[in-house]
Write a structure and sequence with these properties.
This protein is mainly α and 325 residues long. It contains 16 helices and two strands. It is globular and about 55 Å long. The chain binds farnesyl diphosphate and magnesium ion. The site of farnesyl diphosphate has 12 residues, from helix 5, helix 8 and helix 9.
Length: 325
């Protein structure tokens, strides 16, 4: 990920994307909405999805122009807006070290500021990028909502299947990574095959990203997460790493857990094969991601896109394995 985020071409593009994100989030006729949306985008984030949009554009031989920059900003705005909704649903009070909008302004205002961010991205895509890009983004928002909905229907379900978990994260996370790559391929007028290849790469990497995020929730110390470990367990989200671990948690699942029970579940999971099996599962997805990539003539971008999934898996494996188990 460092290689992607420190590439001079990407850094230069991200500066423009950042300015566009700030302009869009601050463009409401109501200053209070601009302030709320602005606070969320200013709270940080790695800008991984727009960086992937820029890398895809460069990989396909297109220097990111105004349209690509706007498309990348729209992708990040959708991500940030969906997090506002997610925090509301989670009743979270903090994200990225800052108070959430629901904690600060109440649920109703947070809800409509999230709506504003999603809608503003759609408007920018149709007016300043292109209809095909707007279509990709609108279809992605549909998938985000469906993936998130599926997660809620599975909450506290001890019979949750791996297939159901994968379907949910494909919608709630991987779809936006896929869109991040696809919009750049559309702007570059890539062939249908290359579009499909870049979209598949984005989706596979997005799955890896979410599965590792879920693994860290079960393995990383609270200081690193910026939130208590085991948040998913508390909320009744039985994520893929848990489902892959084969750990017997039967006495603890299917109902809310006390703090002591969360600790006990984490202890059992960390003593299981969860980390190894999850990492192995992600390596399979990474290999599918690399197999999907089209021919890339730009050597730097080829190195970045080929290296990204494995570098991130190795990084999370190191964190997860040094945690006391
Ligand atoms: C964070 O994941 C949440 C998401 C990746 C997507 C959330 C999507 C929605 C709320 C649907 C959006 C609604 C519309 C209308 C697009 P997480 O909860 O696993 O991670 P966290 O620990 O960062 O909260
Ligand atoms: Mg959440």
């Amino acid at each position: 990920m460092d290689q992607l985020l420190s590439s001079p071409a990407i850094v230069q593009g991200l500066r423009k994307v950042e300015a566009r994100i700030r302009r869009l989030s601050g463009s409401s006729a109501l200053p209070a909405i601009s302030a709320g949306a602005g606070r969320i985008v200013a709270a940080g984030g790695k800008r991984l999805r727009p960086a992937l949009t820029l890398a895809t554009s460069l990989a396909l031989g297109k220097t990111p122009d105004r349209r690509v920059i706007t498309a990348a900003a729209c992708v990040e705005l959708i991500h940030a807006g969906s997090l506002v909704h997610d925090d509301l649903m989670d009743r979270a009070t903090e994200r990225r070290g800052a108070r959430t909008l629901n904690a600060e302004l109440g649920d109703g205002k947070a809800l409509v500021i999230g709506d504003f961010m999603l809608a503003r991205a759609g408007l920018a895509a149709i007016t300043a990028v292109s209809r095909p890009v707007a279509e990709v983004l609108a279809a992605t928002v549909v998938e985000l909502a469906e993936g998130q909905y599926l997660e809620t229907t599975d909450l506290f379900d001890p019979a949750r299947t791996r297939e159901s978990a994968i379907r949910s994260i494909t919608g709630k996370t991987a779809a936006l990574f896929r869109a991040g790559c696809l919009v750049a391929a559309v702007c570059a007028h890539a062939s249908p095959e290359d579009r499909a290849r870049m979209a598949a790469y984005g989706e596979r990497f997005g799955l890896v990203f979410q599965i590792l995020d879920d693994l860290l929730d079960l393995t990383a110390p609270a200081e690193r997460l910026g939130k208590p470990a085991g948040n998913d367990l508390r909320q009744g989200v039985y994520s893929l790493p848990l489902l892959l671990s084969g750990t017997d948690l039967g006495d603890l699942l299917g109902r809310p857990m006390s703090d002591e029970e969360v600790e006990e579940a984490l202890r059992r999971l960390r003593a299981s094969r969860m980390v190894d099996d999850t990492i192995e599962y992600c390596r399979g997805l990474a290999s599918d991601a690399l197999a999907a990539l089209p021919v890339i003539h730009d050597q730097e971008m080829a190195g970045i896109l080929y290296g990204l999934p494995t570098a991130y898996i190795d990084h999370v494996a190191r964190i997860s394995l040094i945690t006391p188990r």
